[in-house]
Amino acid sequence: MQDVLLVAATDRELDGLDGLVCGIGPVEAAAATARALALRVYRGVLHLGVAGGRGLAPGTIVIGSEAVYCDLAAAIPVVSRVPADERLVEAARRALPDAPVLPIGTSAAVGSVPHDVAVEAMEGFGVLRACAIAGVPAVEVRAVSNEIGEADHSRWDLGGAIDALHVALPALLAELEAQT
After folding, report:
1. Is 139 exposed, middle or buried (0-12, 13-18, 19+ CB in 10 A)?
2. For residues 143, 99, 90 and 106, what is the CA-based torsion angle, rounded to 10 degrees?
3. Cβ contacts of residue 153 below 8 Å, gap of 6+?
4. Which pLDDT tens digit goes with each residue over 117-135?
5. Are 63 and 106 in contact (CB under 8 A)?
6. SS3 letters for 46-101?
7. Parallel/antiparallel/unpaired status of strands 119-121 and 44-53
8. Which residues of 19-43 are buried (b: 16+ CB within 10 A; e: fewer)?
9. Distance (Å, rounded) from C-alpha 68 to C-alpha 168?
């Protein structure tokens, strides 16, 4: 997928695929993604990785309808939501028809998304906001590894979530490439 930039926080989430390792957290993700978009023209961005979920089984793949910045609060209006590109969401739905399409909360602190957000990750808003400013379509796709707020990290299934993500990726990448 030469014209679609794959972005993940870690090498492990990219699992050998060619793409951008943006680092952990919304600031690192925004800065790294903005730099990549400034250096090369892409037709789209697929941000992928693991996430916490509320009431979602480990291994569940989720397509982000929007990225919600849960750490941001101000007395004036601020950008706290970035919708995913509708065409890329539809392409992802064709590839992953059983995947729920939900807002994905972004927080620098694990376990701090509000209760009305069912999926939590740490980079999505930074990636999608950088893409929105650059005018590049983007979508976030996550695999659930743990229940939001689960303090016992031995109960997190990071390996299983990454495996589920990589099983889903061939069909997802084919649909996204056809769409962009």
Report:
1. buried
2. -40
3. 146
4. 999 999 999 999 999 999 9
5. no
6. EEEEEEEECCCCCCCEEEEEEEEECCCCCCCCCCCEEECCHHHHHHHHHHCCCCCE
7. antiparallel
8. bbbbbebbebbbebbbebbeeeebe
9. 24
Rounded to whole angstroms, what are the CA distances from 114 to 13, 71, 118? 25, 10, 9
Q: Which amino acid is at 178?
A: A
What is the value of pTM for the model shown? 0.94
Q: For residue range 98-117, list pLDDT tens digits in order.
A: 999 999 999 988 777 777 89
Residue 7: both structure tokens together: 């972005």
Query: What element of type H or E holds 178?
Result: helix 158-179
- Give bridge partners of residue 147 from the DSSP assignment: 53
Q: Is 127 helix (H, G, I), strand (E, B) or coil?
A: helix
